[in-house]
Design a protein that fits this description.
By secondary structure, the protein is mainly alpha-helical. It has a single domain, classed as Four Helix Bundle (Hemerythrin (Met), subunit A). The chain is built from 10 helices and 3 strands, in the order H-H-H-H-H-E-E-H-H-E-H-H-H. Strand 1 and strand 2 form a beta hairpin. Helix 5 runs parallel beside helix 7 and helix 8 packs antiparallel against helix 10. The radius of gyration is 19 Å and the shape is globular.
């Protein structure tokens, strides 16, 4: 039997690798669904957040699948990293910041607060040293604008000042291009990888529990959900420092 004939191991491996690429690309469809919700005359932020949360779950699971099934080896003509970066920019940066802009969670002129984050994230995504999978760290704030947008909605719904959200966006935009390392959760060293994974699953469960009332969720539940981002930040600096390769130090 020819090595590449239908049903051969080689063909099955290629088909499986392409399936992973399609799975990664499905995040673009989720970005479209979130955008369509944001562009309604009466936007329902809970639905936009739901589509973005599903995109996070796709992003968290496609990398392990790609490595396990050696996607780069079996589909060398397709750059999975490029697909991932395009989808991530849409779902982690562009659409979340569009949500912040559309819902007025920053003061006027809204564009002045949102544009720096959009541009800074473009530079971060284009930085070849921004993601080191071997060292398990991100360089600069890793464009978690979806998380920022989620809590910005809660903050404003509870009477918080939109100016505080704007200042946070500007600060994180600057941090996006600074040589500060944040740990890569999927590749964190043991035992912290399991801690971050299990904590992340619990955090996602809390976010789902908040969705029916979003953004007017109970304050105690919102505060409880901040435990995981706080854990990530508390672990991020020392773990990323320990994992950083000396030759890549900024």
């Amino acid at each position: 039997m020819h090595a590449s004939s239908p049903g051969s191991p080689r063909s099955c491996n290629r088909l499986r690798a392409y399936a992973v690429h399609v799975y990664t690309a499905s995040g673009g469809v989720l970005a479209l669904l979130a955008t369509a919700e944001i562009c309604r005359t009466d936007p329902r932020p809970r639905w936009a957040v739901l589509w973005l949360l599903l995109a996070v779950l796709v992003d968290a699971s496609d990398g392990p699948l790609a490595r396990r099934w050696e996607v780069a080896r079996h589909t060398p003509a397709i750059d999975g990293r490029k697909i991932d970066d395009i989808v991530d920019y849409l779902t982690y940066t562009f659409v979340p910041l569009l949500l912040v802009w559309r819902l007025g969670w920053v003061p006027e002129p809204r564009l002045a607060w949102v544009a720096p984050a959009l541009v800074a994230s473009l530079f971060a995504f284009a930085n070849l040293a921004a993601k080191d999978e071997r060292g398990a760290w991100f360089l600069g704030f890793p464009s978690y604008w979806n998380v920022v947008a989620f809590y910005a909605g809660i903050w404003v719904a509870h009477g918080g000042a939109p100016h505080a959200v704007g200042v946070l966006l500007l600060a994180l935009a600057v941090l996006s291009v600074l040589p500060v390392r944040f740990v890569y959760p999927n590749l964190a060293p043991r035992p912290w990888r399991a801690v971050l994974w299990l904590g992340g699953l619990g955090w996602c469960a809390l976010l789902l529990a908040m969705l029916p009332d979003y953004p007017r969720v109970p304050a105690w539940l919102a505060l409880l959900s901040l435990a995981y981002p706080a854990l990530y930040l508390a672990l991020s600096v020392p773990l990323a420092r320990d994992q950083a390769s000396p030759g890549l130090a900024a």
